[in-house]
Each structure stands twice: as structure tokens, then as C-alpha cells.
Recover the amino acids of this structure.
């Protein structure tokens, strides 16, 4: 009987220790999960703010090209900015939805990691897609502002300069794409991917993914 009582006591003690370890692990994990969720919610909120900005841009650009549809250069300026605004709206909505999807608390850590990695890749690609056109899009934005606020048509005033600047911007954009591809092919795969994701998707998402990796390691 004494041996059986001793075994039962040890079993109860082991069960109690397991429960304490589980509680300690949960207490350590919960702040990290909360931090990941805060970062994702902050990212989602930022995308919604950008969504409002790009909706305003798209509406104003639409009004611009409709008002000046009889002037080819102004029509094209307004259309280009309008299309860019619509693309940016789609990007903001998609990023916010991906962040909300990654924020699902009931999902396993591995699934959350996969969703966050998808969000980071999409953010990096769309940052490039939205950023590179500004090598020449700045000129159209300047044209728009000059017509709206100063009544000056930059193309009509200096067509050679306008077309030259526009062509130079397009060339810079294409050159930047080529240089980036050339550089990325000559860097180690892990190095180039990590640098690309960190620089284009932002440190907030990078830190959230690192915290999820730590949580996964603790659960193994």
C-alpha cells in the first residue's frame, strides 16, 4: 500500500508540475501573441488610412480628366493618376484583408506564420509596384497641381522639356528594375530575400514574424 500511495503521490506531483509549466509557458506566450496582434492591427489601420487618401486621389483625378478631356495631355495626365489611384486602393484593401486574416487568434502558430509571410511578400512586391512609377509619375502630379492651382499647363509651355523629363523618368524606372534584378541574382538567396522583405514590408511585420517564429520554437 505504501508503494502504491508513493506512486500516486508522485503522479499527482508530476501532473501538478506539468500544469505549472503549461501555465508558465502560456503566461510567457500571451504577451508575444498580443504584441503580434497589435502590430498587425496597427498595419491594418495604416492601410485603411492610406485607403482614404487614395480614394480622394482617384476621385480628384477622375474629375480632372473629365474636366479636361478635350486636351490630350491633360486627359492622359488625369487618366494615369486615376489608374494609379485605383491600383493603390486595391493594394491597401488587400493588405488590410491579409493582415486581418493573419490576425486570427484561433489559428495555429504555423498557419499564422504562413499568412504573415504571404502578407510580407505581397507588401514587398506592391511597394515596388507602387514606388517605381514615381520616377516619372511625379511629373504628372506636378502637371496636375500646376493646372489646378496655377492654371499653367507645363506641357504646353515646354513640350520638349516635359517629354524629355518623362522619358528620362521611364528610363530610370526600367534601369532600376534591371539593376535590382542584376543585384539580386548575385546575392545569396536567403540574404537577398530577407533584405528585400525587411526593407519593403517594414520592420513592424518583420518583428511580428520573428515573434511568431519564437512562439513556434517554444511549442516544439
Amino acid at each position: 500500500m505504501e508503494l502504491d500511495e508513493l506512486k500516486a503521490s508522485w503522479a499527482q506531483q508530476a501532473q501538478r508540475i506539468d500544469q505549472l509549466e503549461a501555465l508558465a509557458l502560456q503566461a510567457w506566450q500571451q504577451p508575444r501573441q498580443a504584441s503580434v496582434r497589435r502590430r498587425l492591427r496597427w498595419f491594418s489601420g495604416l492601410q485603411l488610412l492610406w485607403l482614404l487618401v487614395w480614394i480622394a486621389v482617384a476621385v480628384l483625378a477622375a474629375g480632372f480628366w473629365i474636366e479636361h478631356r478635350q486636351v490630350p495631355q491633360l486627359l492622359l495626365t488625369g487618366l494615369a493618376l486615376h489608374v494609379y489611384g485605383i491600383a493603390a486602393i486595391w493594394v491597401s484593401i488587400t493588405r488590410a484583408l491579409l493582415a486581418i486574416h493573419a490576425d486570427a487568434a484561433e489559428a495555429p502558430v504555423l498557419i499564422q506564420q504562413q499568412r504573415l509571410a504571404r502578407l510580407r511578400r505581397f507588401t514587398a512586391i506592391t511597394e515596388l509596384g507602387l514606388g517605381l512609377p514615381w520616377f516619372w509619375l511625379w511629373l504628372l502630379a506636378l502637371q496636375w497641381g500646376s493646372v489646378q492651382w496655377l492654371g499653367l499647363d507645363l506641357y504646353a509651355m515646354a513640350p520638349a522639356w516635359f517629354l524629355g523629363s518623362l522619358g528620362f523618368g521611364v528610363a530610370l524606372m526600367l534601369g532600376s528594375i534591371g539593376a535590382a534584378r542584376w543585384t539580386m541574382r548575385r546575392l545569396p538567396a536567403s540574404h537577398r530575400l530577407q533584405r528585400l522583405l525587411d526593407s519593403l514590408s517594414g520592420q513592424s511585420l518583420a518583428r511580428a514574424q520573428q515573434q511568431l517564429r519564437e512562439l513556434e520554437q517554444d511549442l516544439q
Observations:
- The chain has one domain: 39-219.
